[in-house]
Design brief:
With about 120 residues, the protein is α+β, with helices and mostly antiparallel strands. Helix content is about 45%, strand content about 25%. Strands 1-2-3 form a three-stranded antiparallel sheet. The protein is rod-shaped, with a radius of gyration of 25 Å. InterPro entries: TadE-like_dom. Keywords: Membrane, Transmembrane, Transmembrane helix. This is Septum formation initiator.
Length: about 120
């Protein structure tokens, strides 16, 4: 092996390899971001159901309390409230967005329910 490098032998190799892997990197980032959105939707649905159940148990408006903390990009979804014996239940279903909230939704929804002891 020579002490001196040939001119232009490996020049640009890193750039070519990066351009080859760049689409794969973008796909992995999109999949990770979609997983984050799914998890956040579960968190939003659970929190909304919990707040709705607590408001309904105290005699307030369950649906508006559940809808208050859900960002508009997730839409209204489905919110159901009602008393079952001594427990006030709230059920929330939210659509799962595809990559950007408010643009397109997956065909399935995230559903959550919560209950609180009635205070009346």
């Amino acid at each position: 092996m020579s002490r001196f490098r040939r001119r232009g032998g490996d020049r640009g190799q890193v750039a070519v390899e990066f351009l080859g892997l760049f689409p794969l990197i973008l796909v992995v980032l999109a999949v990770v971001w979609q997983c984050v959105l799914i998890g956040y939707t579960y968190s939003l649905a659970g929190d909304a159901a919990d707040k709705g159940a607590r408001a309904g148990a105290a005699g307030g408006d369950c649906a508006s309390a559940a809808r208050a903390d859900v960002p508009g990009a997730w839409g209204d979804g489905g919110i159901g409230c009602g008393a079952e014996g001594g427990v006030y239940r709230a059920r929330v279903s939210l659509p799962v967005p595809v990559l950007f909230p408010g643009a397109v939704d997956w065909p399935w929804t995230v559903e959550s329910s919560a209950g609180a002891a009635r205070e009346d």
